Amino acid sequence: MTTDILTTPLRDVLDLPERVTASDYVLNLQSGVAHAEPTLHQYVVTDGIAGAMDEALDLVATAMRAQRSSGAFVHGLFGSGKSHFMAVLHLLLAGNPHARALGGLQRTVADHEELLGKSFLALDYHLLGKESLEAAIFEGYLTVVRERHPDVAPPLLHRSEDLLADARTQRAQYGDDAFFAALNSVGSDDDGPTGLAGLGDLGRLTPGAGGGSGWTADRFERALVEPVGGPERTRLSQQLIRTLFTGYVSTGTWVDISTGLRTMTEHARGLGYDAVVLFLDELVLWLAQHLSDTTFIQRETSKVAKLVETEMGTLPLPMISFVARQRDLKDFLGNTADGAEQVAIGQSFQWWEDRFDRIELKAADLPKIVHQRLLQPRDDDGARAIAAAVDRIRHDRQAMTHLLTDEAASTEADFALVYPFSPALVDAMIALSALMQRERTALKIMGELLAEGRDHLRVGDLIGVGELFDAVVLSPAKPLTPDMRRRFAVAEHFYANRLRPYLLEKYDVTETEAAALPRNAPFRTEDRLAKTLLVSYIAPGTASLTNLTAAKLAALNYGTVTSLIPGREASQVTQWAREWAQKFGDVVVGTEANPVIGLQLSGVDYETVIERVQAEDSPSNRRQLIRELLAEELGLGPAEGFRPERPFTHVWRGSRREVDVLFANVRETKSLPADQLRAEGGRWRVVVDYPFDEPGHFPSDDFARLNQERDAGLETNTVVWLPHFLTAARMQDVGRLVLLEHLHKPRMFEANASHLAPAEQEPARLALENQRKALREQLVRALREAYGIAAPRPEDVDTGSIAANEIFTALRPGLTVRTPAATTMRDGLAQVMDQALGDQFPDHPRFEPEGEEVRRAEVRNVLTLVRQALAERGRLAGLDRTKARLLQRVAGPLGVGTPRENVYALSATDFRWHGEFTRAVADTGRDGDVTVSDLRDRLAPTGMATDLQDLLVIAWAALTDREIVQYGTVLREPAIGELKPHMALRQPPLPDAAVWEAAHRRAQQLFGAQPEAHLSAAALHRVAGTVRTRAEQLRAGAEQLERALREHQGVLGLSGDSARMVTAVRARELVTALRRGDDLALVTALTEADVPEEPQALGKSLSTAGDVIRGLGRVPWDVLRSVEALPGGAEVMAAVRATAERDELHAPLVPVLDEATARANRILIEATRVTPTGGGAGGGGAVGGGGAGGSGETIEPPTSGGGGVTVTEVDKVYLDADGAEASVNDTAERLARFVRDNPGRRVHVKWWVE
């Protein structure tokens, strides 16, 4: 491919029309048939058209065989050749030899040879302008019959009552002689067709008043009284039409559609035809012109179905109707009809659909037709040139995708056929043509575009979609429906009165100059893109125009948008679209890099709303708007109280920093005194100036103020942000946005839009809201340029008053702020603060990621791992990934040990701050003590957060074995955030090694302390803490055990040197000694306590004291004391005393006591048995009686004082068989006590079993 080929004039490659007339590329069906030769010469037969012609002829053949009427819609898009198709079909049926010889139709003609031999009366109808369907059909029939059969009386297709009434009037007025002479002046053709079948030969009427076979008064009167359709009435009507009332043929009232169709086909049969074929063109367009007349629509649509389904049965001849249709009638309604009306019309059309076949002229054939009719290369060189142009575009895949977007799913081959148009343009053109009168066909519009570009189009020029706006919207032709006419008018008004003037002003050209600009001039390109957007508004839903992104908008006008970097054309389109949206609220642009661009035209004059709030545009409101925009961009928090500063939160090297941001005019000492330039509270301050000032003031005035303050000695942690000034155009935008933001406030729009009609208020509000958003977005971009974040553009900012390296000025000596490389203002300020804080705290650890804050929870977790490492001799191994990552993020940069993958090491050599803290101890001169404040002073230059300082102080204290003390109290493992400046870190007193070793061993043996690796304050604290806690838990048990043993030592046979008693006393003394206060005293006491070399018995006594005490509490001591004298009792007590003598470790006491209690109870019960003296239902015994056993008799206690026995009490004890051991013990003890309290008396016991 060479450049020369692409720059070749297109007229040298294609045969471009010089001009396009009103009739070009628009075929009227009737004229197409009348001028058969050019019609057939221009016709392009594709495979799809041949198939459709087959379907049409098959439909005719089927109707002929069945001798019934049928019909079909010839469906196709505007410009698809429906009229041309029907004209060729007409010529085929009419026997035109040239039609039957058409290339591409030979197989079709051969397959239907027999059918085409029939005689068809083909009638063409152009319905536009007709008053009714029957008027069109019947008048057309009469016209054809008059032309082809002038000597035949026409059929009666109008109502004859008025005709006959007028005849009576004329007869009375002129008399019979004159009337009948005129009536008989033309012979009637009784031998020809009359419109009625089966009349026979009534004879030829000859002139003469009432004579012979002519019309006489008697015959006239007989005809008048015949019913409608009577033979004589019909002959009279025909004769009147031929002689006295010839105007009734084309005027008057037509008969109803069913009657007329029957009459018409009967007449045609009399003429010798085999069938009648109707071709109805523009039927839907004709109906669409009457959409406002619902009665007309419903009446006429109901007639269409009668073309195939009459109320009078089968017609005399088959009648086949072909109806051209491109859209459903309801599609023309738009917003002009309510839902119910749309449904009703849709149902009427569905009535047709159910009765008509459908012959579709496929859209896929359109490229071939266009190519054949319009775009045939002149020669092979021309074909190669077109192929080269298409190949160039084919390599741009993104553009190619957009250019192939259409309803027909076009291919690259289709693109080659329609070049220099694109399938997308053809798709849009068809959609626009469908909205217009039939004269604006797709082919005609394409021809006009080619004629217009004849002198300037080159082979490499693709005609853009935007070119359709002038060809369609600005053309004299108007849309079909009122709704679309309004839509076109709104689009034309917006372009002519707002968009076009804006572009002319922007490029500083006049209309005359604009017309002379070359095709690719920026003005022409932007104008073309804007027109494309308007086309998408006019034809919404069109496949090629939906989802109109910047890239797609550029592609649809391929080759006209230029970019320094290939492939970046969408950026230029986006910039222009955002400028439109900024200027007009009707344009809507998305926020993406490749945004969707839309148009929401309302036609409402919303500028009148703006005019009502002009007073709101003041310098103070402009400054307030800039503050709000900047605060939002910077992500500032709200001001606190009455302070003018607003907080900016920034995470620097993992630590959160608060920065005070103040908006002010730096040069004004009154509004910005020197004190407000000074940072305070340890926070940095940023003073942000405005990108404008009062007339006569410039950024140089702000620099002069800063130099003046420096000369006065001002040194502070403050950065001053001095922006470029906005251009006059952007300041106009600021003023406009002030007004729009005011209207955006609650109830402000309603208060200022009351003059608009209610239906206009919402569109106006939406348009203003769209403009507010677009202006806000545009102004934010301009502010980024003004404040040095984005590259400045001359249309937005004035860069002549301040250099780029002067935008940031630091009042801290030695600090020079570099211009940040950021995309947002927040990021830019963050980078400035990185520089400022880095200059202030160069030694601050760098935590990664730097922008993520090291939170307290993370610091606490690190401290836990530090303590674990120190407890493990300074090394933690086998760390999981989470802990290892945490140590690498926090402990590593902080210098607290060395984390490596899954191992963490911590020692004095791994602790970065060990030397600094050790020097702090030496510098204090307080005998080795150092305060938290002393250590924080050493860390202050790093700028670390307090939590990180706490971690370092606590870790160093643990590493160097120091206690943290507050008011004399040692803090055991203080948490992050708990340290106070006055707290002291001191070396704790520790026991000597021998004491520690002994105490540590006894703590593990007696109190379960964990083993410690080495002596340290922390280890001392842990061991002492465990011992103290456990000893306190055991103390009450030890004391109670000793007391219980002493209480029952007689029964148990214990003495002072019994092993159990000795151990109990030691245990009580030990836990008592361990109640001392500090850790050192406790471990000393533990070492000095009377503990045997093998303390296991002592430990067992301490740990089981509670269980033993509870066991002693269950023993019936009186029973044990009483049972010793009874048989077997001594043996029981001997076993008890033998066990009690020994340590619990060697002889558990509680099981032996429980067994002794059970045996004592059995002995006691056995001892109470006596020989029974009588029968009974129970059993009983007597205490003190001799003998055991019994026969089941019950001895009743005496009820009187006989025998010297006095019954003072009868105890009834009820025993539960389940778990009764405790009750038995209790009863036995009560019985023993009763016997003891009544010496010498006999006690009787009674029991029974249930």
Account of the protein in words:
- The chain has 1250 residues and is of the alpha/beta class.
- The chain has seven domains: 29-131 and 278-361, no CATH class; 158-212 and 229-253, no CATH class; 374-601, no CATH class; 609-840, no CATH class; 856-986, no CATH class; 993-1166, no CATH class; 1171-1247, no CATH class.
- The protein contains 51 helices and 23 strands.
- The chain has a five-stranded parallel sheet, sandwiched between helices. Strands 8-9-10-11-14 form a five-stranded mixed sheet.
- A hairpin with a 2-residue loop joins strand 16 (898-900) and strand 17.
- Helix 29 packs across helix 35 (758-786) and helix 37 (856-871) crosses helix 38 (881-894).
- The longest helix is centred in the C-terminal third of the chain and has 31 residues, at 1017-1047.
- The chain is elongated, with a radius of gyration of 58 Å.
- The termini are far apart.
- The model is unreliable at 190-212, 1170-1195 and 1198-1219 (pLDDT under 50).
Any chance you could write out the topology, listing elements then pairs?
Elements: H1 3-6, H2 29-34, H3 36-42, H4 47-66, E1 70-75, H5 82-93, H6 97-100, H7 106-111, H8 113-116, E2 120-126, H9 133-148, H10 161-174, H11 176-183, H12 217-225, H13 231-242, H14 257-270, E3 275-281, H15 283-288, H16 294-304, E4 319-325, H17 339-353, E5 357-360, H18 366-373, H19 380-394, H20 397-403, H21 412-418, H22 423-433, H23 442-452, H24 468-473, H25 482-507, H26 511-516, H27 522-538, H28 550-556, H29 569-583, E6 587-589, E7 597-599, H30 607-611, H31 619-634, E8 646-652, E9 655-663, E10 684-688, H32 699-711, E11 718-721, E12 725-726, H33 728-744, H34 748-752, H35 758-786, E13 797-798, E14 808-810, H36 825-840, H37 856-871, E15 875-876, H38 881-894, E16 898-900, E17 903-905, H39 914-924, E18 930-931, H40 932-939, H41 946-959, E19 963-966, E20 969-971, E21 984-986, H42 993-1007, H43 1017-1047, H44 1049-1052, H45 1059-1073, H46 1079-1088, H47 1096-1114, H48 1117-1123, H49 1129-1140, H50 1149-1167, E22 1179-1183, H51 1221-1237, E23 1243-1247
Parallel strand pairs: 1-4, 1-5, 2-3, 3-4, 9-10, 10-11
Antiparallel strand pairs: 6-7, 8-9, 11-14, 12-13, 15-17, 16-17, 18-21, 19-20, 19-21, 22-23
Helix pairs in contact: 9-14, 10-11, 12-13, 16-17, 18-21, 20-28, 25-27, 28-29, 29-35, 31-33, 33-35, 37-38, 37-41, 42-43, 42-46, 43-45, 43-46, 43-47, 45-47, 47-50, 48-51, 49-50, 50-51
